[in-house]
């Protein structure tokens, strides 16, 4: 009798049975359930290392080391194996810590549906062949720093309870992040080096991937992402108060990247996202009264009236007024023309401004520019201000509309 799991995972070398379950199914030492190994953890790990070393001898014949479906009962450290052969960990389950740090994967390394129940580390590992993580589950912390992906790497539907931080990793080959869409922020990029082959983020909810600490984003491409479908960009970090500024900077970098690629269509969307974040930032600063000098605790030495207080107070008030004004102007820019990107909105406001004077007292043409009505002939000073103000509004809105229209046709 041979192991049922060796048959299920189509091992080229089915192993002998060490445990038979109540249903009569036989399991080899690799596939036996957690507490049925009948072997110490050290001995089990030695068997795994032997298997990896043996497979290296057959390299060139296309053979790879099959560890699919293996149940690793406790902690395992792979450093002593030396360079790995081509290896398959599909559907394997690591019940203890899996330490792949500094491991040199000589050929492809497949982790399809692999489960890491405890922590795992791939720090400073080197993948010379394809690295494939598909439906891989990381149920505890996992370390992904300083990894070198020298070949293709694929991350598809990966689950990671505590997220994955790609810190100082090198993506030398094409890399794909696919169909990651549960809305949780889980992939963080910190200062990675991304080659010209680039990273394609395909069909992912962009809220799951955080690029705010990834300064070089030249070779990152979003393909078929919900951002493109609904046109509204909002990174997962935008809602976090202390991350709003870096999020805005990220939008700005993305806008610059698309401008450099002459992709005005994408640049426009990132421009809107950047301005939205800018507006939020300005509003936050404007309504922050914590630095108001009159609400600060007064020290004992300040119980007498001091001109210095009045000066610093009025400076603060001036600054506050300017913050509110900037915020208000940016908000008007948004409402009137979608930050210069929405000509239809611009046109609607323009038409409204042209039609409203119909309901004003007097001749409606007095309020519309280029109608040969002289403001100097107005019946009162107030009336002339009304006329001039309204004409100015129409002129500005017409300019905004033309600007937005130009932006649209530039694409
Ligand atoms: Zn087996």
Short description:
With 411 residues, the protein is an alpha/beta fold.
Describe this structure in words.
By secondary structure, this protein is α/β, with parallel strands linked by helices. Among the domains are: 44-50 and 71-230; 283-294 and 307-409, no CATH class. It is built from 8 helices and 27 strands. The chain has helices at 4-8, 41-57, 226-230, 244-260, 264-286, 307-337, 343-355, 381-409, and strands at residues 17-20, 26-28, 65-66, 71-72, 76-77, 87-88, 93-94, 98-99, 104-105, 109-110, 115-116, 120-121, 126-127, 131-134, 137-138, 142-143, 148-149, 153-156, 159-160, 164-167, 170-171, 175-178, 187-190, 193-194, 199-202, 209-213, 220-223. The strands form 6 sheets. It has an 8-stranded parallel beta sheet with strand order 3-6-10-14-18-22-25-27. Strands 4-7-11-15-19 form a 5-stranded parallel beta sheet, with no helix packed on it. Strand 1 (17-20) and strand 2 (26-28) form a beta hairpin. Helix 7 (343-355) runs antiparallel to helix 8 (381-409).
List keywords for this structure.
single chain; 411 residues; alpha/beta; five-stranded parallel beta sheet; 18% strand; elongated; binds zinc ion
Q: Output the structural class.
A: alpha/beta
Q: Looking across the biggest beta sheet, what order are the strands in?
A: 3-6-10-14-18-22-25-27
Bound molecules: zinc ion
Name the shape in a single word. elongated
End-to-end separation: 68 Å
- Indicate the mean pLDDT: 87
Strand content: 15-25%
User: How many helix segments?
Assistant: 8
What does the radius of gyration come to?
Answer: 32 Å
Low-confidence stretches: none
Would you count the extended β strands for me?
A: 27
Q: Classify the helix fraction into a percent range.
A: 25-40%
Largest sheet: 8 strands, parallel
